[in-house]
Structures are given as structure tokens and as C-alpha cells.
Design goal:
The chain has helices at 7-12, 32-59, 69-74, 94-111, 121-145, 151-172, 178-197, 208-211, 215-218, 221-225, 231-239, 256-281. The chain is mainly alpha-helical. The chain folds into two domains: 7-209, no CATH class; 228-281. Helix 2 runs antiparallel to helix 6, helix 4 runs antiparallel to helix 7 and helix 6 (151-172) runs antiparallel to helix 7. The longest helix is centred in the first third of the chain and has 28 residues, at 32-59. The termini are far apart.
Amino acid sequence: MATTPDKHCAAVDDTFGPYAGPHCRGGFDFTLLFSEVFLSIIPICLLISTIPFVTFRLLTSPNKVSRSSLLYTKLVWTSLYCCLGLLLTTSLQIAWAVFAGFELALLVVWASRHRTNHRAELASAALSFVVAVLSGVFSFFEHLRSRRPSFLLTVYLLFTSVFDIQRSRSYALSPDLDIVATIFASRLGVKVFLAVVEARDKRRLLLPEFADCPPEATSGVYRRTTFWWLNDLFKRGFSKALAVEDLFQLDKKLQTEYLHQLLGSAWEKSQLAYSILVQYAS
């Protein structure tokens, strides 16, 4: 599983690199410091800095999704305040709980290592645990108050899963990181699962007043990027001649009634402004 220990590899891992050199982990790897900073800490900081703004927007919007098994599959992480001995059991995500548990386990392992930590692995593990807690709470509000899956969490989980594949390989090829490699690989599997679950369509769970919307408005980032939401329309067109009734419901902001009201309101304001200007001119 691991390569022969090499002093050169241990020394170069404390540098930014990014290339670890021909004598480290098969000659095809980043340094661990570079991986921990650029593939872990920076994406985490970007997510943490974005979550408060999106959360504020969600808190000012009404609930759009009914509570369901999907919510409690995504949501039931129980022990997120382990350091304080508290236990949260209401409306929390199972998948995020398991993920936060792996993050906590990695944090404990890194903190208990006997060698002096010269790299950023402990900071990365601590931030990863914090963001797992925040993401679990954010996922709860995003699930209930948004018609479509979370764009922020889906993109973060997708890209960091790709980054974590490289990090998992680095740990697996480091002879002194066997425990870290095992926990990290398991954690990566849970993260990939979360990336899939967070992108699931919630259309069938929408409350009645929000259910009458086009598929594009409820599709996640994967379906919208690949135009997968058009497949149903293509199937209908393949089996029969399409009629107006077969087409998707237009988004509210694209309907003629809404646009007519918007144009009328703008016209009235312009007329009022024009009359005021005429009065001042005279």
C-alpha cells in the first residue's frame, strides 16, 4: 500500500512545491503542503465565506418543500457538538452526520500524531470538521426553502471530491499515514454519496403553491449543465407530434401576464416622471 520511506519525500512535503519530485510517491504527486492548502483549505474558506450570504437569503424566503424522507436521509447528523458533549437529534442529516464523524476522526488522528506537524494538515482537518457542521445546517435550510437542489453545496462537493481523490492517493502512498489513508478513503466515499444526494430533484416534494413550475426551475446543477431536464420532452416528441399541452409550463417571469404587468408598471412610472419634469420645466 505504501512506498519505501524516503527522507527526501518527507522534506519536500513541507514545501509548497507543487511538484513533489521524481523520488516521492512514484514521481507523480503534489507535495502534501500544497494539497492541504490549495485543495482543501482554500475551497473550504471560499465555502465558509459564501454560506452566510446565501443563508440570509434563504431565511427571508418561505418554505417551498415539504418535510420528507429525503430531508431526513440528507439530514440527521447527531453529534456535531461532540466537543461540548451536546447531542443534536432534531431534523439533522444522517449522511452529514457520518461525514462529520469522519472529519472528527481525521482531526483526532492528526492531533494525536507524535511527529511535529510542520504542514497545514491539522488546520485543514479542523476547518473540514467546521465546514461539515455548517454544511449540514445549511443543507437543511436549503432543502426546505429552495425549489432546486443546492448549487453551492453540489459544486463544492463535486470539485472537492475530485481534489480528495488526489489527496487520498498521497496518503495511501505515505507509509506513516496508513490510518489517515483508511479514514480519508472512507470519508471520500461518503462525500461522493453526498454529492449525489444533494443534487437530487425535489419537484415531487414541493408544496402545492410552488409545484407548478418548469423542470428547469427545479433541476440541479448536473441536470441543468447537461440539459437532462429536456429528456422528457424529447421522449414525448419521439413518440408523437407535440402539442401546446405537451410543452413545459413557462417560468412566472417569462409569462405574458407577468411581463405585461411589469411593462405597465414601468410605463406608469415613466409617465409620472415625465409629468413631473414638464411641471418643473413650465
